[in-house]
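Allow me, if you will, to draw on your knowledge of protein folds for a short while. I have a record of one protein: its chain in single-letter code and its fold written as discrete structure tokens. I remain grateful for any guidance, and I place the record below:
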Amino acid sequence: MSETVQIGVAKAGRIGYGFSDIAVVPDRRTRDAEDVSVSWSIDAFHFDLPVIGAPMDSASSPETVIALGRAGGLGVLDLEGLWTRYEDPTDAYRRIHEASDEDAGSVLQQVYAEPVKAELITARLAEIRAAGVTVAGALSPQRTQQFYQTVLDAGVDLFVIRGTTVSAEHVSNTTEPLNLKKFIYELDVPVIVGGAGTYTTALHLMRTGAAGVLAGFGGGATSSSIKTLGLRTPMATAVADVAGARRDYLDESGGRYVHVIADGSLGLAGDIPKAIAVGADAVMLGTALARASEAPGAGYHWGAEARHAKLPRGSRVNVGTAGSLDEVLFGPAHNADGKLNLIGALRKSMATTGYTDLKEFQKAPVAISHYEV
């Protein structure tokens, strides 16, 4: 039973929890961290790490997508980003880096006014494929109709449809909406779609035939949706709700398993085991990877919602540089700030609670902590 509180005479609200509100609780058994497996598979694709790189220009370039793939994760390129708008985006990145905090929003709007070019989508995906890693690209729901054939012709392995909120039943009187069920049915590649912040939304997306659903609002560190739109998704609750939809859809469909990927508010190592313990199969990382020295944002981080031409719902933020991509993923860490050795931390958390694989770790006990970080 969902817990609600009375806001006033006419309105009650459900209590939701973020990752900072919960903690994984050690149980009766512990294990050696070397005995823990953090591998993950979706459809026919197997990955050594349950890590997907968020398709954000500050964190992902063709080079970092390839590097993450070689490290054992899945890199995803934003196919509406700077790399598909400019043959050489160096100057665009320079303008974003050098902009003052007051001017950053307008500079983002100016830089992203350059149209997306189909031939650059083809070229970037070919570059990733030539490196021998799994090829994944992302489009927003608004651009999927326009560019999906270009993406498929380029030979993508996994296709991501990512927005702050994605619905299976979008209604519009001005444009023809994307029919997700028809679209996914006609594709020959697995589709990951989201974000979904509620049980009902996730269940509808699973019924479209998606291989994975992004749980959450995305763009945690860079999102200002609470200020501009009054919207926020408490991530721990969102992931648990979407995991509940996965469980019920498994019964409804006669055994079809849809993967739940936590997307948002995963900036520190300790957030990852919490996301998996409340039901995620894998995590999509933006801020954490934007701190890598190889990240094209050079210590700055921004998402697609920050570049909207009429109503930005995010901002450029300074997340700093913590270390190389290898150090971010595998360490060593030199202090306890949770920015380095994300995979080592996940292994240690699983071992401390006695679990050997990710699916088992979803059963780990969780408590409401209400502590200050």
